Amino acid sequence: MTAADRRAVETLVTLRDVLRYAVSRFRAAGLAHGHGASDAYDDAAFLVLEGLDLPIDRLEPFLDARLLPEEREKLVGLVAARVETRKPLPYLLGRAYIQGFRFRVDERVIVPRSFIGEILFSDGFAGDETGLVPDREAVETVLDLCTGSGALAILAAHLFPNATVDAVDLSQDALAVAALNVAEHGLADRVSLHRGDLFAPLAGRRYDLILTNPPYVDAEAMAALPAEYRHEPVMALAGGEDGLDIVRRILDAAPDHLTETGGLLCEIGTGREILEADYPDLPFLWIDTEESEGEVFWLAAADFEPR
């Protein structure tokens, strides 16, 4: 810890003090955000709340709480580590959140942040007679391709109470982290992890719902990634020259793995125009979120040509 860090430990008193300090340090350092936080303030709020094991969505009640010396030292140390290493905070803290659910993470997996999490729990997607999945209880089989930490598979298991969920990844390291999360959520009897290349380990099984947030960063963007993103596994990000190599493989194989009433929900990043040009006969339904537009599509089994 530097002399400046030590002065901060000795001077800062309340959680509000540390929050302000963190925002200032993060802005001055020009950090990149996007691993569950959209700006320096959100990053700082996550640091103080998770760093002190406080409820992740309740900052206000604690702002003027006085911190113990060891708490100040821990938080100032995390601020310094965030600035000096450029590691995303979920790696430094070992935790990430989607839709209020907590997941273990480390550098063996991409930090979970898929827009699919928001869509799954949005009004009109599942559990509404006008939604894409009108009856949550009727969903019996779900597949999460490129599962990483297992976050989407676990969210699906919580959302669809009668479903068994298969989760696939090529990385044994990622599956080790996913196994920790499955166990922590008490879902070992409903979520099965498989190592392999996309559909290969699934022996022709069909699913009511396929979820996937595959690697989709194109070569140009990979070359210009901020330092924060370079801490993540390359295989979880790189999607080929135009970012859509794996997405194409999923589209080509998905019809053989969907039930008659099933559907595919897939995140692709910014390649919408390319994908629509490559597959002019597929009626992609693009589902927007608060922070994304044209990055996640839905296709029903009936949208594909019969095989």
Automatic annotation (TrEMBL):
One of its GO terms (molecular function) is protein-glutamine N-methyltransferase activity. Keywords: Methyltransferase, Ribonucleoprotein, Ribosomal protein, S-adenosyl-L-methionine, Transferase. Its EC number is 2.1.1.298. It holds the Pfam family MTS. The keyword NAD does not apply. One of its GO terms (cellular component) is cytosol. GO terms for biological process: methylation. The keyword DNA-binding does not apply. Residues 139-221 form the Methyltransferase small domain. InterPro entries: DNA_methylase_N6_adenine_CS, HemK-like, Ribosome_uL3_MTase, SAM-dependent_MTases_sf, Small_mtfrase_dom. This is Ribosomal protein L3 glutamine methyltransferase. It comes from Prosthecomicrobium pneumaticum.
